[in-house]
Design goal:
The complex is a heterodimer. By secondary structure, chain A is of the alpha/beta class. Chain A has 20 helices and ten strands. In chain A, strand 1 and strand 2 form a beta hairpin. Chain A is elongated. In chain B, strands 8-11-12-5-13-14 form a six-stranded mixed β-sheet, sandwiched between helices. The two termini of chain B are 64 Å apart. The chains are: A alpha/beta, B alpha/beta.
Chain lengths: 577, 572
């Protein structure tokens, strides 16, 4: 198993900028409405300053105060409407961008080379597609619009103070000077801490999911206490990582909170001195102090979202990680000349490990039934994956009709060789969709006959026929039925060579016999390479290839090999009893 | 489940409803909640002080042109700000710990209840639903606990502001004190709308996530057989549909959020108007005017907490309903009856199958469902008429003595040694013995750290045959008095199957074992073979005897052995 990559900082930044640029109009509109809303919001303290100046100037006419106060009220209403519009535009931007992120994720997942799909943990890919994409989407929908609003507000508050008095503006800025370094300190550590928090959460979710999926086993083996202990351990780890991020916040929050007070105090003292010297009105000092107190709201909003931005930055890095996987190299454009499969000096090793295949030579004759037998770990399944282009040999070549199999484009490859394993997926979709993926142009009659061929009689009795939904709330297929569905797909895909890796192992003897017989009938003019654990498959094959320790040790008909008295003959006798 | 009663000394959650459950979560951490409420209150009250101090700085310092007074009030303002910063972080720390405690406590309760339900669980509820409960709903519930801290603090802050306002002007005090609750009442119902719109959106979003998981699960199929374009197209269509719903939710949400902030601001503007008129008429000072602005602005904080708290609690009630409904799923009372004192015969009257102490019994049938039904009855899963030493099995506690080992048995992640040892602490020698008996030593050799290597959930880093042998080794390690194994060698190659057939009788010597199988190698080693047709015992005897006397059995077994060739049509 290899881990999926996580995108680096530079890549994440570029991808984020691209997301914003892709919807630049909406972002510009959002900023504009926000700016207008912020201006309307700033009118309040300014008007209050005017009221104070009016009142301190001596006995004030109530009419003047009324007009100023009415203006405060109007500004507030305007601010509400503008803020709402800005939010609505922001939500639409977020929603659209979230859709783009998840759709792009799916496209990338679909483009993953088969060799990667084989090796990465399915849970990781699914977690990125659901949890991480969900976190990013939530951030885009909620955090980005609100952070933008807050940033614009904060900016305008500072601009307003500068306009009232540049010196007080400078004092205010100076007072806030502690925030950037503290925030940088926090951000540098937060990324790792939140990644760890997320990882611990995944482990806990996995333990929870397994305990629930395995309750029957828990009961049978009396594992209750053990599972509880394991869950407690996962909980402890999750708690630990969460306390770690809390510790980081415990530095950031107070530092920032104190920083909010500094500019207010500074402006009072400096502004007070200016007022006493007659350089500034009392109203201006009061308005500045009130503005700076207003700064708390937008800065706090940014601070609150910083955490989510952090965790979603980590999520986004995981989502974007898929982009780092190079796509499958498809260099071959010419179609294979014929159906002949040639294996020459093939060696294969899983990453950094010793060779699993150590020089295999074999010519598969078109139309023959070839059985691959040998003990576990002999390299049978590995050879099967190489034959179907999932993996590429370290050395040597596997060709079909003179063309390297692993370099064939998928569309061409699946008309040549198809691998059928025990693992088969039933999509939560209609029966029809589950089948037409292998043959988009197939008619209903084609589908029904393909199902009939593999002995899937149950399919005829489904409530809504081919439209019956499978999985989830629909009809749930058992292992044998799922296997028949998988075989029907192969019948529809109609390749000239089929590699069966224990394809009928889950079927009961009667059904397996029917399915094999049916497959044999369908595949009678195809090449069938059967990786066999059951020796009767070998017995029925045209030729038997015996593998051991990554090499081909015997090759011939069943009778010849039994007569030769080698590995196969010994195996046959032991097993046959 | 009985409310508030302890089971094995553990406090049991109050699951009468979401609210009692929340209350239970609160009672579990009384001390911390009290601390949180105290700090939250102090913090909230602390928030009301700066406007007062600012007003004093303006009135005493600025207006009187008194630098010393200005400096003193400004210093006080800074000191209060610093103390508030400290209180704020203490509050956040306490509330975070309260949420963690509540969340993890519920996770624990969910896991505990799932294990209590045991084999009955899949019949009662979908696995996906519980995982959702355990991952998402618990935190929605925990979030609602936040309301405990600032909740009380908000009330106190409200009262403090009232007192301060009263000192300035009774009229202003009345307007502010009446206005804020009116605000809360106005904003409250809007949240309901938000939640309903959000629920529909989340549902669509969940369905979309399910589709993505489905497609990712089927990537191998799509890689091998094609059809990616169709799935990508349909996913895009669904994704756009979710975005459409999202737009509608956003249109509503944006109003609610803007009004949530805006209505208090309008209220504030009205209060300022009143205060400004009073200041103009000389009823209050300029400093007091600034203070009123500050107080009313500060009051927004507790009101916002009420609103947010209301939102959290209403969401928690929905999530809590699901949690509570799950925790209320009744657990089948464990049978109290004791089995026979020593080894005894297990007899299934429905099929006629008997499992005999000290013997290896094989069950051969063409239909695995028949074998599974027999084993389920013998293992007391579901209704059963089986007797054990003459006693009805359905009233007896059997789990410690009878073990059903099938291929669906779950493999939990952990070191191989621990996986094999199951509930016991792994004993190296016994683990090695069990692995050897299951012909699984090559698995150990192939792993980087031997028996200390970690096996993924469901043995995903093992092959099908390896998984099967690990399951068998685990069952052998458990060494139950009666082992009922279903097709234990169906996924292993002929070599390995022969080895297992060789070693199993020795590993189970002196114990009762039943193996459902059609493998000739395995059947040949059994002391007795039961041949089942149509769910009933058709013949009993040794493998060799049945081969001679039962043509059906012969056809079944030799098919597996490959002796009888497939029909000509199947061969080319």
């Amino acid at each position: 198993m290899t881990e999926l990559p996580v995108a680096g900082r530079a890549h994440v930044r570029r991808a984020a900028v691209r997301l914003i640029r892709d919807d630049g109009g909406a972002v510009a509109l959002m900023v504009l409405f926000n700016a207008l809303a912020a201006i309307a919001g700033l009118a309040g303290p300014w008007l209050l300053g005017r009221i104070i100046d009016t009142v301190t100037a001596g006995p004030a006419p109530v009419g003047v105060v009324d007009r100023l106060a009415l203006a405060v009220l109007l500004c507030t209403v305007v601010q509400i409407v503008l803020a709402r519009t800005a939010l609505a535009v922001g939500y639409r931007f977020g929603e659209r961008t979230a859709a783009r992120v998840r759709e792009r994720f799916l496209d990338r997942a679909l483009a993953l080379p088969a060799s990667v799909v084989e090796r990465v943990p399915a849970g990781d890919l699914a977690a990125r597609g659901t949890c991480d994409v969900g976190t990013v989407a939530a951030t885009l929908r909620d955090a980005i619009p609100e952070v933008l609003i807050a940033a614009v507000q904060a900016l305008f508050v500072l601009v307003a103070v500068f306009l009232l008095d540049p010196l007080l503006g400078a004092v205010a800025l100076l007072g806030l000077a502690a925030i950037p370094p503290v925030t940088r300190w926090y951000l540098r550590r937060a990324r790792t801490a939140y990644l760890e928090e997320g990882a611990a959460g995944s482990v806990l979710a996995d333990e929870l999911a397994s305990t629930i999926a395995g309750t029957r086993t828990v009961e049978a083996l009396g594992l209750r206490e053990r599972r509880t202990a394991v869950a407690d351990e996962a909980i402890d780890r999750a708690r630990h990582t969460r306390l770690r991020t809390l510790a980081l916040r415990s530095v950031l929050f107070p530092a920032v909170d104190v920083s909010y007070v500094v500019p207010v105090v500074g402006v009072l003292l400096v502004g007070g001195a200016l007022y006493i010297d007659g350089l500034l009105s009392l109203g201006a000092v009061a308005a500045c102090a009130l503005y700076l107190r207003q700064l708390v709201v937008p800065l706090d909003a940014i601070l609150v979202w910083l955490e989510q931005l952090q965790s979603s930055g980590a999520s986004f890095a995981r989502v974007e990680g898929l982009a780092a996987i190079p796509p499958a190299v498809v260099t071959e454009r010419s179609a294979p000349a014929d159906d002949r499969i040639e294996i020459r000096g093939v060696r294969y090793a899983y990453e950094g490990d010793r060779d699993v295949l150590r020089g295999v030579d074999l010519t598969v004759r078109p139309g023959e039934r070839l059985a691959l037998v040998g003990p576990s770990g002999a390299g049978k399944s590995t050879l099967g994956r190489l034959l179907t282009g999932v993996d590429r040999p370290r050395a040597g070549s596997l060709t079909v009709g003179g063309v390297e199999i692993s370099r064939l484009p998928p569309g061409l490859l699946r008309r040549q060789v198809v691998l059928v394993t025990q693992e088969h997926h039933v999509f939560r979709d209609a029966v029809r969709d589950n089948l037409t993926l292998a043959a988009p142009d197939a008619t209903d009659d084609d589908l029904i006959s393909a199902l009939a061929v593999v002995g899937a009689d149950w399919a005829m009795d489904l409530p809504d026929g081919l439209d019956t939904r499978l999985g989830g709330d629909g009809v749930v297929l058992d292992g044998a039925q799922a296997q028949q569905l998988a075989l029907a797909r192969v019948v529809l895909a109609d390749p000239h060579t089929v590699v069966l890796d224990e394809a009928t192992a889950l079927l009961d003897p009667t059904t397996a016999r029917d399915a094999e017989r049916a497959l044999a009938a369908v595949l009678h003019d195809r090449t069938v390479i059967a990786i066999a654990h059951r020796l009767q498959t070998a017995h029925d094959a045209d030729r038997v290839a015996v593998m051991d320790g990554g090499r081909l040790v015997e090759l011939g008909t069943h009778d010849d090999l039994v007569a030769a008295g080698g590995t196969y003959a010994h195996l046959w006798r032991t097993w046959h009893g | 489940m009985v409310q508030g009663v302890t089971e094995a000394g553990l406090p049991v959650a109050d699951v009468r409803g979401p609210l009692p459950y929340l209350w239970w979560l609160i009672r579990r951490q009384k001390g911390r909640i009290a601390t949180g409420a105290l700090i939250g209150s102090l913090w909230m009250v602390g928030l009301t002080l700066p406007p007062y101090l600012l007003a004093q700085a303006i009135d005493q310092g600025l207006q009187r042109r008194d630098p010393a007074a200005l400096a003193a009030w400004a210093a006080a303002l800074f000191a209060v700000g610093a103390v508030n910063a400290l209180l704020a972080i203490l509050r956040h720390r306490t509330m975070t710990k309260i949420r963690l405690d509540g969340g993890f406590r519920t996770v624990r309760a969910v896991i505990a209840h799932a294990t209590r339900l045991g084999a009955a669980l899949p019949r009662r509820i979908g696995a996906g639903e519980i995982v959702t409960i355990g991952i998402a709903d618990v935190w929605v519930l925990a979030q609602a606990l936040t309301v405990t801290g600032p909740g009380l603090g908000a009330v106190i802050a409200y009262v403090v502001v009232a007192v301060l306002l009263l000192k300035i002007s009774p009229l202003l005090a009345v307007v502010v004190l009446a206005g804020v609750p009116v605000l809360a009442v106005v904003v409250g119902p809007m949240l309901g709308r938000l939640q309903r719109a959000g629920a529909r959106y989340r549902e669509r979003q969940g369905a979309l996530a399910d589709r993505l998981v489905d497609i990712i699960g089927g990537l191998r199929v799509l890689n091998g057989l094609g059809g990616k374009d169709g799935y990508a197209r349909r996913y895009r269509r669904d994704s756009q549909a979710v975005a459409e719903v999202g737009y509608r939710v956003g249109a509503v949400t944006s109003w609610i959020q803007a009004l949530g902030v805006g209505l208090p601001a309008i209220f504030l503007a009205v209060v300022i108007w009143l205060a400004a008129r009073m200041a103009a008429q000389g009823d209050i000072t300029v400093g007091e005017l600034v203070a009123v602005w500050g107080y009313a602005a500060v009051l927004v904080v507790p009101v916002a907490f009420f609103i947010e708290g209301g939102f959290d609690v209403s969401r928690a009630l929905v999530a809590g309903r699901r949690v509570v409904d799950f925790l209320r799923l009744p657990v089948d009372p464990p049978p109290r009856g004791q089995g026979p004192d020593g080894p005894a015969v297990l007899r299934d009257p429905d099929s006629g199958v008997v499992v005999i102490p000290g013997r290896l019994v094989a069950l051969a049938t063409a239909r695995p469902a028949d074998a599974a039904a027999v084993v389920d009855r013998l293992g007391r899963y579901g209704p059963t008429a089986v007797t054990w030493g003459g006693r009805r099995l359905d009233g007896l506690a059997v789990r410690d003595r009878i073990l059903v080992a099938d291929n669906e048995a779950y493999l939990f992640t952990g070191a191989l040694g621990e996986v094999v040892a199951g509930r016991s602490e792994p004993d190296d020698e016994a683990v090695a013995r069990a692995l050897a008996a299951a012909a699984a030593c090559d698995i150990v050799d192939g792993l980087p750290d031997g028996t200390a290597s970690v096996i993924d959930t469901q043995g995903r880093n093992l092959s099908g045959g390896q998984r099967q042998r690990v399951r068998l080794a685990r069952a052998l390690y458990a060494d139950p008095e009666i082992l009922l194994a279903v097709e234990p060698t169906s996924a292993v190659d002929a070599n390995t199957e022969a080895a297992i057939a060789e070693r199993l009788p020795a590993a189970r010597a002196g114990r009762a074992t039943l193996v459902a199988t059609t493998s000739p190698a395995m059947l040949d080693r059994a002391d007795i073979v039961h041949y089942i047709v149509g769910g009933r015992l058709a013949a009993t005897g040794t493998h060799r005897a049945l081969l001679d006397t039962e043509p059906g059995y012969r056809a079944l077994v030799t098919r597996a052995a490959g002796e009888a060739a497939l029909p000509e049509a199947a061969r080319r």
